[in-house]
Amino acid sequence: MTTSTPTPTLPTPVVEPRTRFHWPAWGWSLIGVLAVWLCIVAVRPVQPFDPLAQALSLAPFLVLVALGQMLVITLGPGNIDVSVGTVVSMASYVSVGVGAAAGPVLGIAAAAGAGLAAGLISVVAILVLRVPPIIATLATSLIVQSATLLLADANRASAAAALRGFVNAKVLGIPVIALVVAVVTVVVALVLSRTRFGLSVLAVGQSPRAAERAGIRVWRVTAITYLVSGGLAGLAGGLLAAFISPSTVLGSSYMLDSVAVVVIGGTLISGGRAVPVGAWTGALFFVLLSGLLNLVGWSVGAQNILKGVLVVAVVVVSAAATGTGRSSLARLRASLTMTAKKKRNIHG
């Protein structure tokens, strides 16, 4: 009787799943930065890295405002802070006025505090009076603008020399203010990804009702977000007063630019996704774009038209890529179909 020896079975090789590369949400704005920079170099080839150095000096102030605007927009449709521009202007006078009497550090703190106060007005209007956010922040903007005019009449001082030195200081050719704002950006990114508040902001932006059912206090998240937006705009205004000088129109372009930067940087205008890195790539893109358009002789009005067109284009492309536009169209069709069925049942 012969016995057959079993054939040894070879272990099945484990195939490692291939990791799929995901294009970052801020990738297109980074390509835009490089493209605009190359165009500037082509128009003015002398000292090609000067435009980037100048952009790094101007962009941090816009990034600060954009980070706050990003958090507000992430809360979902209808959330936008249109008061940030006037807050920047008001905070510039607050920073200079308080700084002349109590020192530049307290001046900057007072500027941020003024921004928080403006944010508090918006919070009361939105949560207590139930005013839509865009109308509430518009009302705040009018109040802040009136306060700015009063401060401008009473204040003729300039920023302290120490603060001007800090804002214009460089380390290895990199502006110190850019490094500081980079740290702020990292903190915002960590808050969004690692803290309960940050995750709550994303959850509210994706679905306020679901977030509320999950135990998230939507009103508290909304209040903190608008306060942070106001505080960051105030901080930007206080620092900008030392970089340029206080003015009633100092922040006039920051409302449109902050929204444009946020959208170009990859944050979803429909809410639920924030891209802090995109605030930098978007800000650098717009600063370089403004430099290029000034170089070729475009007016400010024409530049704003181009910015508006870019924002609309990015929103449309983003809606198509994420399915937001398709889902909205599907809901509209479903609503129209349901209405038609009800009419047939009534007449039938």
From TrEMBL:
GO cellular component: plasma membrane
InterPro entries in the record: ABC_transp_permease
CDD domains, per the entry: TM_PBP1_transp_AraH_like (cd06579)
Membrane topology: Multi-pass membrane protein
UniProt keywords, alphabetically: Cell membrane, Membrane, Transmembrane, Transmembrane helix
Pfam families, A to Z: BPD_transp_2
Compartments where found: Cell membrane
Protein name: Ribose transport system permease protein
Gene source species: Leifsonia soli
